[in-house]
């Protein structure tokens, strides 16, 4: 029985001490070195007297970031890792919610975090830390303790911290390893940033199975031909990438005339994967396994999956399939009636060990989406309302049709349009605003008496680069609906 994810590492270290675990550019680290460094960092964290406390990690994707994540976990505390390029105003919002007891960052990054007053560890100090076996032996972790808090966009402008326990990641990692038959000979390339939950699969499956994980930066993915060359050179066997990246590779014909003989498993998750581009992959690598994984951060990355077992036309929707083991999917209509018949749309809800323990420090928001199973009221039985609309098809597979709210996915990034609107509304000259997503770009409408100069610059201090709208349209006045709210439908005519 396993009570924390660090046991995955201990077991693999015992079996494969000298095997390469992580590769990042010219740097690599084996299992034993990684375990030593993360335990030494854990020892340092324990010297601060921290137990089950939040630790904020602000580091770029790197081996150091992984040492920090495992070091925090080994110390019996929990981490939250955020984008090192996040504007400080947003970092501050996260700090206000998380109230970290410690910050782990790099010396060359923005030093404003020092102003917060928490203790700070810099990644260039890691090598100087030493094991303190006496402190480490006193750490007690149970599987319902938190492992991490990942922040996602919040519709009111406040990021939401999804709290995930060891139990959920253990459950997920066992499922991935078994379902996709992951062994110690597996070589993976990680695409997802560590602040995006797709990386959980890459990191923890690798560690549990004694495999090897290569880290590539977001920047490198802008050059598909080079990435394909990298996959070839390093004999990569498995990838789990966001559909936007697979689409980009297909559209840029990066797979043409390439023989990726070792690549046997192509997994994806995070947004709809169009069959048009998937068919290009399937034609280029006909013997690989393709799997469409579905799930929000709130259920530990994935709750539903479909392994492609038949051909699809370019314009068909790819199913998201069926529930993962130890997970239950429930579809409810508007009146909370359970849907079991095909072709009836409802909201996809999830039950199981994968469920988040709620939004950190926000019981109110948590209560809105983590609700009692409407099928009974006999004992505490939480389900998560995903906000996604789904239905069963004729094969009893689930199909996901989109969202009930204004959450969108742009290049794999989860964005609440409300968060952008909140940032726009904070401009002194903007009376109100509304954002629309065309499927390709975000368009911002704002009410003001004149065009606002440097609006992008203003937003870049508040929200992340990928959230900034492509087009800004000024209106003298928004049309309002009967409730006095912005008539959002009327804006469609202006797109
Ligand atoms: P995130 O929390 O960033 O993982 O985003 C979760 C949301 O992404 C889900 O609620 C869905 O709206 C969408 N999503 C994730 N995976 C898929 C998929 N395979 N197909 C369609 N939409 C997906």
What layout of secondary structure does this protein have?
Elements: H1 6-15, E1 20-24, E2 27-30, H2 31-47, E3 54-58, H3 63-74, E4 78-82, H4 88-98, E5 102-105, E6 119-122, H5 133-137, E7 146-152, E8 160-165, H6 166-179, E9 187-190, H7 198-209, E10 212-215, H8 224-233, E11 238-241, H9 243-251, E12 265-269, H10 275-284, E13 289-294, E14 304-307, E15 322-323, E16 327-332, E17 346-352, H11 363-369, E18 370-372, E19 382-392, E20 398-403, E21 407-410, E22 413-416, H12 417-425, E23 432-437, E24 442-447, H13 455-460, E25 471-475, H14 488-491
Parallel strand pairs: 1-10, 3-4, 3-5, 5-6, 9-10, 9-11, 11-12, 12-13, 24-25
Antiparallel strand pairs: 1-2, 7-8, 13-14, 14-15, 16-17, 17-19, 18-19, 19-20, 21-22, 23-24
Bound molecules: adenosine monophosphate.
Written overview of the protein:
With 495 residues, the chain is an alpha/beta fold. The chain has a domain at 411-495: ANL, C-terminal domain (GMP Synthetase, Chain A, domain 3). 27% of the residues lie in helices and 26% in strands. It is built from 14 helices and 25 strands. Strands 2-1-10-9-11-12-13-14-15 form a 9-stranded mixed β-sheet. Strands 16, 17, 18, 19 and 20 form a 5-stranded antiparallel β-sheet that branches. Strands 4-3-5-6 form a 4-stranded parallel β-sheet, with helices on both faces. β7 (146-152) and β8 form a beta hairpin. α1 (6-15) packs parallel to α7. The longest helix has 17 residues, at 31-47. The structure holds adenosine monophosphate (AMP). Adenosine monophosphate binds at residues 152, 197, 269-272, 292-294, 296-297, 320, 386, 388, 400, 403, 409, 414. Residues 152, 197, 269-272, 292-294, 296-297, 320, 386, 388, 400, 403, 409, 414 line the site of adenosine monophosphate.
């Amino acid at each position: 029985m396993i009570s924390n994810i660090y046991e995955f590492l201990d077991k693999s270290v015992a079996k494969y001490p000298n095997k390469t675990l992580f590769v990042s550019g010219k740097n690599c680290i084996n299992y034993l070195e990684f375990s030593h460094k993360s335990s030494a960092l854990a020892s340092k964290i324990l010297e601060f007297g921290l137990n089950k406390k939040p630790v904020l990690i602000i580091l770029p994707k790197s081996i150091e970031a992984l040492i920090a994540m495992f070091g925090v976990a080994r110390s019996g505390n929990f981490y939250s890792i955020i984008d090192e390029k996040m504007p400080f105003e947003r970092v501050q919002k996260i700090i206000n919610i998380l109230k970290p007891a410690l910050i782990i960052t790099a010396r060359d990054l923005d030093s404003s975090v020092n102003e917060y007053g928490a203790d700070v560890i810099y990644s260039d100090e890691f090598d100087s830390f030493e094991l303190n076996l006496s402190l480490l032996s006193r750490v007690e972790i149970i599987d319902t303790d938190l492992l991490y808090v990942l922040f996602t966009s919040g519709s009111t402008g406040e990021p939401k911290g999804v709290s995930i326990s060891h139990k959920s990641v253990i459950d997920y990692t066992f499922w991935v390893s078994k379902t996709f038959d992951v062994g110690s000979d597996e070589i993976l390339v990680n695409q997802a940033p560590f602040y995006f939950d797709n990386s959980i699969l890459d990191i923890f499956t690798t560690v549990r199975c004694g495999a090897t994980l290569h880290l590539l930066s977001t920047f490198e993915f802008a050059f598909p031909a080079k990435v394909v060359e990298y996959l070839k050179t390093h004999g990569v066997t498995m990838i789990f990438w966001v559909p936007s990246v697979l689409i980009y590779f297909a559209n840029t014909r990066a797979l043409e005339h390439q023989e990726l003989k070792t690549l046997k498993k192509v997994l994806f998750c995070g947004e709809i994967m169009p069959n048009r581009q998937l068919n290009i992959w399937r034609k280029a690598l006909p013997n690989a396994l393709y799997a469409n994984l579905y799930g929000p951060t709130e259920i530990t990355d994935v709750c539903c999956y479909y392994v492609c077992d038949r051909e699809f036309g370019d314009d068909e929707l790819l199913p998201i399939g069926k529930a993962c083991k130890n997970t239950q999917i429930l579809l409810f209509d508007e009146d909370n009636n359970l849907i079991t018949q095909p072709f009836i749309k409802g909201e996809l809800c999830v039950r199981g060990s994968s469920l988040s323990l709620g939004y950190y420090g926000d019981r109110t928001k948590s209560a809105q989406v983590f609700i009692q199973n409407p099928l009974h009221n006999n004992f505490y039985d939480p389900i998560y309302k995903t906000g996604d609309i789904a239905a069963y098809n004729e094969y009893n597979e689930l199909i996901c049709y989109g969202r009930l709210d204004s959450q969108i996915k742009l290049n794999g990034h989860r964005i609440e349009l409300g968060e952008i609107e909140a940032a726009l509304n904070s401009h002194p000259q903007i009376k109100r605003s509304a954002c629309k997503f065309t499927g390709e770009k975000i368009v911002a409408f704002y009410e003001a008496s004149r065009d606002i100069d440097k609006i992008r610059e203003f937003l870049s201090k508040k929200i992340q680069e990928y959230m900034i709208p492509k087009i800004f349209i000024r209106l003298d006045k928004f049309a309002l609906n009967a409730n006095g709210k912005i008539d959002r439908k009327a804006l469609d005519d202006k797109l």
